[in-house]
Structures are given as C-alpha cells and as structure tokens.
Amino acid sequence: MMKIGINGFGRIGRAIFRINESTPLFEITAINDIDPLIENHAYLLNYDSIYGSLENKVSVSKDNHFLKIDGQRIAFYSKEKIDDIPWENHNTDIVIDSSGIYDNVVNSYNLLKRGVHKVIVTHSPNDSVDHTIIIGANEKSFNSSKHHIISSSICDANACAPILKIINEELCITGGFITTLHPWLGYQNLLDGSLRSVSSPGHYWSDFAL
After folding, report:
1. CATH number of 3-123
2. What is the C-alpha to C-alpha distance for residues 197 and 188, in angstroms, rounded to an integer?
3. Distances 113 to 62, 83, 121 between C-alpha atoms, Å
4. Average pLDDT of the chain to the nearest whole number
5. Residue 51 neighbours by CB under 8 Å, 6+ apart
6. How far apart, in whole angstroms, are the C-alpha atoms of residue 41 and residue 60?
7. How far apart are CA 60 and CA 65, in angstroms?
8. What pLDDT, on the 0 to 100 scale, is given for residue 85?
9. Which residues pair with 121 in a beta bridge?
10. Spatial distance between the Cα atoms of 151 and 132, rounded to a whole number of angstroms
C-alpha cells in the first residue's frame, strides 16, 4: 500500500485523513503541523462540526509523539518547514502539502532528494510546481517521469473547470466570468481582532468583504 505523509493538518489535512479512514486507499505514515498540541489534533479529528464524529476514534500515545487508530501508530511532528521532517524515515512515497505556505512548496524539491517520490500541493502556488492537475479537466496531461511537485489547484477551479471543459468542447467558450460564494477561512476573522497580514484589516470578514 502506498505510504502518505500529510504536512499541514487543518481542514484539508484532516479531510484527507477522514476520507482515507472510511475508504483505505493508502497508509498515512507521518503528520506535521505547526500547532504542537497533538491532543487538540486528535479531538478535531474525532469531532468535526461539519463531518460529525469519527467512527473509529483517534487517541494519543503516552509520549505524545504518535496518533493511534485501529492499531496503527502515525508519527506526529510540529515543525515549521516541510523539509524539517524525516519523511524518508517513515518510507513515505508521497507527501501532501496542505499547509498553504508558499515556502513549503519551494522546499518540497528537497524531499525528492531524500526518497519521497511526489509532493501534492493543495493550493495553487503559481509557477513553483511542475504541473497543475484538475480531475475532470486535464488529468490526462500528467507525466509521471516529469511531474513530481503537483498542484491540485484551488477549490473554485476544481468546481468549475470540469463543467467548463464539457461546455467548451461542445459549444466553444470565447469568454466569460464566474462568481463564487466561499465560506469563511481559518485566517479570516468572524469578530474584530488582529491579523498576521498587515495588508488586511482586522475587522470581521463579512463586513470587510461586502
């Protein structure tokens, strides 16, 4: 079974974990997140406000270094950089970078020198990847011998591109625009408060967005 590492254990990282738990496609070998509170990660996995309770509950090892589920021990790290993790020690084939941090994309190339075969990035970091793939739109363009750092693009593109591909093939699209409705993200305030980015105001997001 293919061995997968997850870098960035927010909503996307946990969703990948949950999908694999319900339909085992691969073995998760290691998880890295800048939040060092492993008990909090276990709780967020077990009880999700959107997806509900996890059927097979996750627990934490006594030494706080592993998440445990169904007899499996998954190594947990809390490092800032993706290449600070010894993925090769866990025989990791593919690392999924769901951190959303641009520097991790650039540093992903270091992993290829240490035994990791591919890195999949769950956002769109412009031209810093070998290829961007959207299932239903251009997955046939993937070349395994050339494409090693791969972007899955963004949610808006994944929602629209497969439909637009069909319309374009049948009718030929010459231009247009798309309006999307998006939920609040983790870095967007629901109430007034400080933000890391000085380019964004600290007001609650719906007021600012409107």
Report:
1. 3.40.50.720
2. 11
3. 33, 11, 18
4. 91
5. 15, 18
6. 9
7. 8
8. 98
9. 97, 151
10. 5
Instruction: Report the percentage of the chain scoring pLDDT > 90.
Output: 79
* One-character DSSP codes across 98-167: -S--HHHHHHHHHHHTTT--EEEESS--TTSSSEE--TTTTGGG--TTT--EEE---HHHHHHHHHHHHH
For 102, how many CA atoms within 13 A lie in the half-sphere containing its CB?
A: 4
Q: How far apart are CA 122 and CA 102, in angstroms?
A: 11
pLDDT exceeds cutoff 60 at 94: yes
Q: What is the pTM of this model?
A: 0.88
Q: How is residue 196 written in tokens?
A: 């890391």
Band of pLDDT at residue 203, cut at 50, 70 and 90: very low
Domain boundaries, the chain: 3-123, 182-210
**Length of the chain, in residues:** 210
Give the CA diameter of the chain: 60
Secondary structure letter of residue 177 according to DSSP: -
Q: Which of 34, 106, 133, 155 is catalytic?
A: 155
Is the pLDDT at 115 greater than 90? The verdict is yes
Distance, CA of 30 to CA of 4 (rounded, Å): 7
Residues whose CB is less than 8 angstroms from the CB of residue 183 and which lie 6 or more positions away in sequence, other chains included: none
For residue 11, report the phi and psi dihedrals to the nearest 5 degrees: -65, -40
Q: Please confirm, yes or no, whether 172 is among the known catalytic residues.
A: no
Smallest CA-to-CA distance from 9 within 70, 85, 112 is with 85
